[in-house]
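Quiz preparation item.
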C-alpha cells in the first residue's frame, strides 16, 4: 500500500500542446493518502481515465512526476508499479475457468496453492460466483465477466493501490449496490489505497471517504461528502452534486450585501471587493418559500413530490430557482418570495468560491 503523490503533473494527447486547452489533464499537485478510499467524480470527458491511467502507468504524462511512498515511479512500467486496475468493460481469459481467472494474478506472483485456493474461494464469495468456479468464462454474460474482472482486481492483498474505472457500468442495478458494498468492506478489511472513478454522485458519495471532483481536466475540489455539500469550492461542484444541484445566480456583492436583479440580500458576512463574474450559490436545502415583501419575487412553476421531501421549481426573472420543502409543508399559491438562509449562501467570483472576511 502506498501514498501516491502527483507532482506538477499534466497531460496532453497532442504532440505539441500550445495552450492550456490542449491539455486533457491540467497541472495538478496532489497527495492520495495511504489507505484512504477515494472517489474520482466528474462528467464524461473531464479526464478521469487519463489520470487513472497515468497513476497505473498505462500512460506516460507529458509533464511532471508520480511518486509512490516518495519514490519516483514515473518511468516504471505498469508491472513494476504493483497496482490492480479494473476497467469499465471486462478483461477476462475466455478459455480459462472462473477459478483460473481469479487465481491468475496470484499464481503469476508465485503464491502457494493452498493460499490461492483459499483466497479464490473468499473472492468468489464476495462477487457471488462460488457456484460458477468451474465454468469457462466463455459464454458467460457481460455482467458475470465483469464480476470476474472485479474479483481479479481484488484478489491480491499486496498491491500498492486498487484503481477502478467505472467498473459497474455493465452490472445490473440491483447487483451494483451489492458489489459496491463488497468493495467497501474490502477496503475496511485490508485498508488499501483505493481510487474509484465514477460519473455518478450517489456511487461516489456512498463509496468514498473523500470525493475528488474533476471538471474540464482539473481537480476542482477534494473533500468529504459534507464539505462538498456545504462549501462547494467551484460552482460546478455545487451544480453537479446534490439533487437538484445548487442554485447559482448572477449578483453584485458589496460588503455584507448582495444584489440580485435589483433585490438586496443580506449575506451575514462581509466580503472584500470581488473581480470578474460574481455569483451567489445557494443549495435548495437552504432556500425557502415565503409570503410578503422580503426576499426574491418568484412564481411557483411546479411541485414535485419525491417522497422524503418536495422539490419546488420557481421562476425568478426567467431563471429557475429550486427549493426543497419538507414533506408535510403547506405550499400555498400566494407564496411569492424566496428567502435564503444566510448560513447556506456561498459567494463565487469567476466560478471559484470566495471565503468571507474573517473566516
Ligand atoms: P473521462 O474518463 O473523464 O471520461 P478521459 O480521460 O477519457 O475522460 O478523456 C479526457 C479528454 O481526453 C477527452 O477530451 C478525451 O476526448 C481525450 N482523450 C482521451 N483519450 C484520448 C486519446 N487516446 N487520444 C486523444 N484524446 C484522448
Ligand atoms: Mg473514462
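Solution:
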Amino acid at each position: 500500500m502506498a501514498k501516491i503523490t502527483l507532482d506538477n503533473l499534466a497531460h496532453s494527447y497532442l504532440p505539441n500542446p500550445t495552450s492550456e486547452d490542449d491539455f486533457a489533464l491540467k497541472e495538478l499537485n496532489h497527495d492520495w493518502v495511504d489507505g484512504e478510499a477515494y472517489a474520482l467524480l466528474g462528467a464524461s470527458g473531464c479526464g478521469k481515465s487519463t489520470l487513472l491511467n497515468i497513476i497505473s502507468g498505462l500512460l506516460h504524462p507529458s509533464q511532471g512526476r508520480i511518486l509512490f511512498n516518495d519514490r519516483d515511479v514515473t518511468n516504471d512500467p505498469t508491472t513494476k508499479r504493483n497496482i490492480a486496475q479494473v476497467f469499465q468493460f471486462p478483461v477476462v481469459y475466455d478459455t480459462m475457468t472462473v477459478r483460473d481467472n481469479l487465481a491468475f494474478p496470484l499464481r503469476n506472483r508465485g503464491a502457494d496453492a493452498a493460499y490461492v485456493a483459499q483466497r479464490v474461494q473468499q473472492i468468489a464469495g464476495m462477487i457471488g460466483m462460488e457456484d460458477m468456479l468451474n465454468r469457462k468464462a466463455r459464454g458467460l454474460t457481460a455482467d458475470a465477466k465483469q464480476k470476474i474482472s472485479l474479483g481479479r482486481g481484488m484478489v491480491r492483498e499486496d498491491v500498492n493501490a486498487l484503481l477502478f474505472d467505472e467498473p459497474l457500468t455493465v452490472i445490473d442495478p440491483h447487483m451494483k449496490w451489492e458489489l459496491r458494498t463488497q468493495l467497501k468492506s474490502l477496503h475496511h478489511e485490508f485498508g488499501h489505497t483505493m481510487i474509484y472513478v465514477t460519473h455518478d454522485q450517489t456511487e461516489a458519495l456512498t463509496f468514498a471517504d473523500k470525493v475528488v471532483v474533476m471538471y474540464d481536466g482539473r481537480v476542482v475540489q477534494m473533500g468529504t461528502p459534507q464539505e462538498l455539500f456545504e462549501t462547494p469550492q467551484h460552482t460546478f461542484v455545487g451544480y453537479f452534486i446534490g439533487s437538484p444541484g445548487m442554485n447559482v445566480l448572477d449578483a453584485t456583492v458589496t460588503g455584507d450585501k448582495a444584489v440580485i436583479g435589483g433585490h438586496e440580500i443580506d449575506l451575514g458576512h462581509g466580503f472584500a471587493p470581488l473581480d470578474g463574474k460574481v455569483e451567489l450559490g445557494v443549495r435548495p436545502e437552504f432556500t425557502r418559500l415565503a409570503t410578503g415583501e422580503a426576499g426574491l419575487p418568484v412564481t411557483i412553476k411546479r411541485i414535485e413530490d419525491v417522497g422524503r421531501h418536495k422539490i419546488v421549481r420557481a421562476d425568478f426573472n426567467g431563471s429557475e430557482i429550486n427549493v426543497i420543502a419538507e414533506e408535510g409543508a403547506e405550499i400555498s399559491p400566494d407564496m411569492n418570495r424566496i428567502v435564503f438562509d444566510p448560513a447556506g449562501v456561498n459567494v463565487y467570483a469567476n466560478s471559484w468560491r470566495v471565503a468571507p472576511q474573517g473566516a
